[in-house]
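Example 3.2
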Amino acid sequence: MEQWEQYEIWTPASDQSRWQFVAAFHDFDVASAVARARGSHVRLIHAKYVDGKLAEQQVILDVGKTRQTA
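Structure, written as tokens:
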């Protein structure tokens, strides 16, 4: 069973109704610095994959717009 973790940067798509993947990094400090430097609405997500499929994800940073919860 292949497992890995990465930090992903996501931004709103042009229609603002969904998120689009921008980049992934194995190092949190690098991912955080890149996310903060983008200057627009961005999310930094810690993602865990098992056998090539997303098993778990957690939003670590949401910059540029207030996060809304249901």
